[in-house]
Amino acid sequence: KFPVMGVRWRSSLTLGEKEQVNGSSAAAGGGDNKREDGGNKEVVASYWGIKGEEVKKEDGTPWKWNCFRPWETYQADLTIDLKKHHVPTTFLDKLAYWTVKSLRFPTDVFFQRRYGCRAMMLETVAAVPGMVGGMLLHCKSLRRFEHSGGWIKTLLDEAENERMHLMTFMEVSQPRWYERALVFTVQGVFFNAYFLAYLASPKLAHRVVGYLEEEAIHSYTEFLKELDKGTIENVPAPAIAIDYWRLPADSTLRDVVMVVRADEAHHRDVN
């Protein structure tokens, strides 16, 4: 069977877990984290160095995550059409389509059927277009002194959603050192290539993303087939996924892949 579970990254720890880590460090190495009033209680600061207000779930229990908030969670639409396809007709459509198809071959060769790591690599790339597009539309809005029609927020939300996919798959798959090095290379090339493409033709850039999302749907469908066959162990869903997609407490990795695939179908339709 393919390895699935990996170590937890510190950036994905919950606030409570970070308190335990900091507390262990303080017990082993000194009292730099003591409060000014002489107490020993650990204080977990926010990214900005200011302790934020306590956030709770609807049931009154403390909210564990500092990378997203309860009002940013949702239930994915699993009824979305997964087979929808934009038939390339214009030159730009065909250029986008065959560009994406040409990128699939080396990906299949490199990852083969290791879909956990494949998903993680995919999300490091998929989270780039929304940020690039949102950034360029933001600058355009500033230059022209005009509204964006809601597209800036839409694209930034897409980028954030793709990043949350990565945060989730980090919990279930551990990338190898050369795969982490590949992320630096691929992201660097793709970011700049997509940036230039968006400057040249936003329509082409969005069409590329649409076809990329179609390939993502295909990859996650294959992921589900491997889970159903038992080739990949259907482990319990990570806690971050259960809270982000409002999944039942007994959800599994298969349930996570289902909602992620539905997200990708939504991004396909938007682009």
Automatic annotation (TrEMBL):
GO BP terms: alternative respiration
EC number: 1.10.3.11
Cofactor note: Binds 2 iron ions per subunit.
Any one Gene Ontology cellular component term annotated for this protein: respiratory chain complex
Cofactor(s) named in the record: Fe cation
GO molecular function list: alternative oxidase activity; metal ion binding; superoxide-generating NADPH oxidase activity; ubiquinol:oxygen oxidoreductase activity
Keywords, ordered alphabetically: Electron transport, Iron, Membrane, Metal-binding, Mitochondrion, Mitochondrion inner membrane, Oxidoreductase, Respiratory chain, Transit peptide, Transmembrane, Transmembrane helix, Transport
Coiled coil stretches, renumbered: none
Record's catalysed reaction(s): 2 a ubiquinol + O2 = 2 a ubiquinone + 2 H2O
Broadest EC class assigned to this enzyme: oxidoreductase
Primary location recorded for the protein, binned into one broad class: mitochondrion
Protein's cellular compartments: Mitochondrion inner membrane
Residues covered by region (Disordered): 16-39
Topology of this chain in the membrane: Multi-pass membrane protein
One Pfam family from the record: AOX
Record text on subunit structure and interactions: Homodimer; disulfide-linked.
Protein family (similarity comment): Belongs to the alternative oxidase family.
Protein name per its UniProtKB record: Ubiquinol oxidase
Gene field: AOX1
